[in-house]
């Protein structure tokens, strides 16, 4: 994660897979479940509705307009002028329709704005907006570090069909989700031109969506989060990531998003950075990453930028994603040393993904230095890796500080004649890597490394 400063569609089987009352210190390895969203029962019901196109709100309808001359009552004929005024009025089940236009207000959704499990508060682009006149939240011309939208502990909120553009500064962001925020849905939004001034500098960190879990206990976690069918492009995130979920976050679903040329890492879930004072909660857990398309991730400061990166998280599912033309494909790592092996990167399933033309490394597993963290219990199954590692020092599979890794049923192919690296590279970190199983894979144009 390297943070210096404070994120063909498929059939999915919806299964209620865990409770929000999970133990904060996860010791045992649970059975890997392959196709299950994460969240409480009511949140999973909301996910079903989103995927089927149903509304989550059944209350009053209000409107806001960027060209309103005066603060109205929120009706379509007399719309609100400011989001801050609208948020004083909205209650559970209400919808705020955002009329086409450019909004330059920094939007802060406060803790007091709460829907409920049966009635979300929805903030959405007006269905009557045209493609020529969308609802745009813009930071153009604003002071540096202008975060376009902050969610400060609100709950049962849906953000839909808005554009977030032109956030600029050392800590720029499209949407920043803070501690205690829960049951948040961000869908069908567009994020563009979110940039830091000097991407090579360590203190320059931007994010398209950042869930920053610095809450001190289980009650203050960021939880029950859906990031669905959003588009991210033309960004310069510096030492940050496009979609970043870190620290005290649980039950997160990142599904069917498109990321292209966003700068540095595409999708990142991580932890063990000390953001949460309880080390048993200081990492993202129960995260479902599926159906995303990630392209053209490149680091400005020279590191390998992976399309999808699990760094310190636990109980992670990475399924049916497409990663193309990034410097790295998929990494299961652990940059920070854990206080206990119980907090290691743990229980990660990588299945049915496609990784194509990633020049440095297609698949990396483990803490990359001996004093880094440990990665445990990883299953890499039925993925396709094609035309990767075309650098002289590139590698298709890199194993470092890891334990209990199975790589089986995958296809490794090289068709373009540019392969210059290694099929398998293993770091020698005393007893690591250990308990590695590589079997029943298919190799085309490459030497087999099966045991």
From TrEMBL:
Transmembrane segments: none annotated. SUPFAM superfamilies: Pectin lyase-like. InterPro entries: PbH1, Pectin_lyas_fold, Pectin_lyase_fold/virulence. This is Right handed beta helix region. The lineage of its organism: Bacteria, Pseudomonadati, Spirochaetota, Spirochaetia, Spirochaetales.
